Amino acid sequence: MSNDLVVVLTALNLEYQAVRERLHSPRPHRHPRGTLFEIGALPGGRGRVVLGLTGKGNQPSAVLAERAIQEFSPAALLFVGVAGALWDTPPLGDVVVATHVYAYHGGTSEDDGLKARPRVWETAHEIGQTAAHLARVGQWARHRPSDHPLPQAHMGAIAAGEVVQNSRISREAEWIRQTYNDALAIEMEGAGVAQAGHLSGSPVAIVRGISDRADGTKATEADRRWQPLAAANAAAFALALATELVEEEPPTMRENNTPRDSGDVTNTAYGSVGVQAGHVSGGTFHVSLASPGPEPMELSARISALREELARERSAGRIDTETHEAASQEIDIASKGVEEATPQSRKTSLLALKRLMGLLGDLTSLAAKVASLITAVKGVS
To answer: What's the domain count of the chain?
Structure first.
């Protein structure tokens, strides 16, 4: 799994552009079957986003979600876009993050009517907790246009079907009211994406901006006016969530909530204890938990070698001038941080290397070496 990479998929070009304009240096990546993704750095450079366009509907979204998961092994997959509100709330422009997704068209037709056979997928606990925290804090919305109200994020169920829902009195609207009346929003891709994540073992989040009320006013001038804002708000929340999901994992904690140090641990054994080196019955033995990390001099040599390989790729024409200059700057920052060898400079080096990964994501050999360097820098004590 790529812990610093999140896949973001959208159904519409409007939604795609709302995400893309927030990424740094997006570069194309073509799947062997022709699907064109773009890979860019998150705002702040703390991770990468793979961005893809699925088109409308649960089926194509499921196929391309599965394809993206197999190609990139992301830390998470986010589906981002607009949706209709099923009731009078949430307000237009607000964001709904799915706690669970209903595939609401499942059922059986019998003599006495249509009986529901619901399918539902719950959002992964960690993603749900992180999204709920972001919704409470509200910092994700600080860059909204000044002439629009502050949007809110809501956690709740989302219904995903196979038709555009634009009525409150149709037979289908009545079906949803009777069977899925806790759903806040309705759309056409979330169930397929949730199923793909379930089958692939990848955590999924569905993030939707409310652009209409699914009540007969869709495709009006008001709907066209709200769609861009709703897409922008959904993109802002989704990328804030992605940034949280690619942060470094916290250290293992002791029972008293203090970080556990690496090094030697003394174990006192009562009774018979098996160890790899032999067998001890009673007494005390010492086990070393971790070997020392790489020396700064070794890391500097590896960074220098990376710089030389980057120059060779530029000479061969596989990297354009702009990308080469940006990548060289990140290497300089990483090198300086390693040489200074302080906790803060180590953090600076890690961030520079992660931004470098975003710049070189489509050059497999270089990206692999950067990933190896990130692991090595994390291992420095």
So the answer is: 2
Do 223 and 135 have their domain in common?
yes
Q: What is the pLDDT of residues 84-129, one digit of tens each?
A: 999 888 999 999 999 999 999 888 888 888 888 889 999 999 999 9
Q: Is 146 left (phi over 0), alpha (psi -120 to 50) or beta?
A: alpha
Q: Are residues 95 and 200 in the same domain?
A: yes
Considering the domain architecture, whether residues 182 and 56 belong to the same structural domain is answered as yes
Task: Say if 288 falls within a structural domain.
Answer: no
Tell me if 276 is assigned to some domain.
no
In a domain, 279, yes or no: no
Cα 105 from Cα 307, distance rounded (Å)? 55
Q: Is the per-residue pLDDT at 236 higher than 80?
A: yes
Alpha carbons 115 and 106: distance in angstroms, whole number? 9
- Please check whether residues 230 and 144 belong to one and the same domain: yes
pLDDT band at 264 (very low <50, low <70, confident <90, very high): very low
pLDDT tens, 183-232? Answer: 999 999 999 999 999 999 999 999 999 999 988 888 777 778 899 999 99
- Is the model's pLDDT at 246 over the cut of 70? yes
Structure tokens given for 272: 């018979």
- 168's tokens: 């409150």
Same domain for 193 and 311?
Answer: no
What is the rounded CA–CA span in Å between residue 24 and residue 20? 8
Which range of residues forms the domain containing residue 184? 2-245
Q: Is residue 359 part of a domain?
A: yes
Average pLDDT, the chain: 84
Alpha helices in the chain (DSSP H): 13-20, 58-72, 125-137, 171-179, 190-200, 221-245, 296-315, 321-340, 343-359, 364-378
Q: What is the 3-state secondary structure (H, E, C) of 255-310?
A: CCCCECCCCEEEEEEEEEEEECCEEEEEEEEEEECCCCCCCHHHHHHHHHHHHHHH
Domain boundary among 229, 245, 261: 245
267 has pLDDT over 80: no
Q: Is 59 exposed, middle or buried (0-12, 13-18, 19+ CB in 10 A)?
A: middle
Whole-number Å distance between alpha carbons of 72 and 75: 9
pLDDT of the residue at 14: 97
